[in-house]
Please model this.
Amino acid sequence: MRDSGARQRGEQERSRVAKKRILDAALKVLVETGYSGATTLRIQEEAGVSRGRLLNYFPSRDALLVAAVHHLAAEPVLDLGSRTDWPQDKIERISVAVETMWATYDQPYFWASMELWLAARSRDDLRAALLPAERTMGAMVRKSTDSFFGSELTSLVGYSELRELLNTSMRGVALTYAMERRRPSQDPHLDMWKKLALEALLRPL
Amino acid sequence: MRDSGARQRGEQERSRVAKKRILDAALKVLVETGYSGATTLRIQEEAGVSRGRLLNYFPSRDALLVAAVHHLAAEPVLDLGSRTDWPQDKIERISVAVETMWATYDQPYFWASMELWLAARSRDDLRAALLPAERTMGAMVRKSTDSFFGSELTSLVGYSELRELLNTSMRGVALTYAMERRRPSQDPHLDMWKKLALEALLRPL
DNA sequence: CGCTAAGCAGTCAGAGTTGACTGATTAGTG
DNA sequence: CACTAATCAGTCAACTCTGACTGCTTAGCG
Model:
């Protein structure tokens, strides 16, 4: 620690990049092979990194996966909010919003989260790390949902309950895709959700 | 195979009992330690069975866990339908039905299912075994739900959609308990579900 | 231009897991 | 009561994973 604060610049940058590569690889492997298959060996291979380097940054597998959790929460994984041509018509808007929400559940981060959630159940330290990270994620999801519906609809009375109902139900349905490999865009629940949203928001029509 | 069909009686019985002990142990360990922690060693220990015996019945870990899936589907795990003193008042009945449904998600079989679902995602043979078993489970859940609500309510028009919405949403919420160890009986979503059910079934009040 | 310390590569021992294998046992047959 | 074949107990080799360790490399200081 003699010259701490010096010798940085380039090194810090390299280090940051390497860490990100490792964490991205960890999440990729996590999604592809599940928690138990996400070994440090496979992750280091996926990241194209030597063992020494990986272990230098993340001294243990747990530390690595905990870091992956925070990485997941920090990354702007939900960049679906970029759509700009939302329909004017409220009914149309609701339909599109529900579809956009649902598309959100067909993304890698969703499975990464689920793998982590389940694993956290029987691992105390992972659970401790996951809880705050997951609150962040929850807020992100809510914000995204709001942007899908637009301020005109989100200000309606039953909205926040509807949002919760939709998100929890979609999570419950998305999980079935672990077994059934259907086309999410044609899920039979879509109509159900749209109808629910219409009635919840536009009942006194 | 000389005298196949003979030498049974006692042996078959013993065998059946031993198998059940092993499968019960497998599910217990699965719930307690998660998929990756459910090793054959731990299961044989929990079952109080020698390695030879376990491997005689289930030649591989995969075979054992696939069998555990079917075991789970075959067992009457949801014996909550035994309640007899359902309220007469519809509003009360709906409230109790929702609470009873929700209590269903605070049982070991739920976590066993979730562990298996997630694991099936990256294991072809497990997935193949899980799909039909899970259809059976789905039917059981639906039947249970119906019994909670009673024929008077299940015959109403919006019922089957409501049932699906409640079950998927409850699954989505129950998953958060992997991280947050709250009291399920006080879950804030209960009011939401009750209100939803009331409106869906008794709207033209 | 030598020097220091952190970053990093590659190796390895130890722990844990799986499933094969060798005999012993047991149930039921003739 | 001998005999047969399945059942079962206990051991073990092969493999995998983790994290510690040794030493090389690199960046920046004086």
